[in-house]
Amino acid sequence: MTLLFIRFLFIVGSMLIGYQIAGPNEKALAGVAIGGLVGIMIIFTEIGMRRVSVRGLSSAVFGLILGLIMSKLLSDIFILLKIEPQTLALIRPVMTLILCYISMAVAIRGKDEFNIIIPYVRLSRQDQVETVVVVDTSAIIDGRITDICKTRFIEGKMVVPRFVLKELQQISDSADPIKRQRGRRGLEVLNTIQKDIGIPVIIHEDDFPDIKEVDAKLVKLAKLLEAKIFTVDFNLNRVAAIQGIKVLNINELANALKPVVFPGELMEIRLLKEGKEYNQAVGYLEDGT
């Protein structure tokens, strides 16, 4: 609602500027219309840039500034070399264009190494104690994450990457009814965690287009955010652990919570069916074992 109000004020301001430029004459109406049209076009451009990440944008801006600075320095050097003004007028725009393009391309390519806008410097806040957890698709579909969040086993912020959310939506739209049900349950789980339990769920926009595998993207994102990965995927668990990333695995937690039973210990158990051999039967403990 606040953003809509800001857009409305921006369009009104654009119309007033158009009126001011046209002046109080027969062209005033045309000035107001052109100003409003320009304002609407800028808003549509802003809406189209919603998927542009802040890290990528800040890297591009830094690259542009760096390119302009290098272009200015080289121009001053050419002036000291007493190059003819006509030749310098031809060299300067070409040099500026090339340096800005190269600087922006290098900055965007290395944007994943930026934790802040300052380039090639990785800083971490010493007072930051809030836990960040990146959630895998398998953990969301599993469903047990809801009960775990209710017990406050997970605290801090829960990050759901855009590519994980996209994978969930694809599963929920699958022709296979079982997959479709699992995908919809995953979306309901996220909604429950955010609204009923109150844990902040953040949708992270970085997609890492140069990486194809979802597991590799999760590991990359966890490294950048210095976060833990929440999953039930054994292979992802191993890959992340090898690269020094902490993993919260639901299956490992379930195994750790199983009651310890010693040989010869007496227990009560309800036998559900006969076994294959004599004096054998099948039953379940309270934890489902």
Defining key terms:
2 domains; alpha/beta; two-stranded antiparallel sheet; Rossmann fold; single chain; 5-stranded parallel β-sheet; 289 residues; 11 helices
Give the topology.
Blueprint: H1 2-22, H2 28-48, H3 54-80, H4 85-109, E1 132-135, H5 137-142, H6 145-150, E2 157-161, H7 162-172, H8 177-197, E3 201-204, H9 214-225, E4 228-231, H10 234-242, E5 247-249, H11 250-256, E6 271-274, E7 281-283
Parallel strand pairs: 1-2, 1-4, 2-3, 4-5
Antiparallel strand pairs: 6-7
Helix pairs in contact: 1-2, 3-4, 7-8
Notes on the protein architecture:
The protein is of the alpha/beta class and 289 residues long. Helices cover 57% and strands 9% of the residues. It has helices spanning 2-22, 28-48, 54-80, 85-109, 137-142, 145-150, 162-172, 177-197, 214-225, 234-242, 250-256; strands spanning 132-135, 157-161, 201-204, 228-231, 247-249, 271-274, 281-283. The strands form two sheets. The protein has a five-stranded parallel sheet with strand order 3-2-1-4-5. It is elongated.
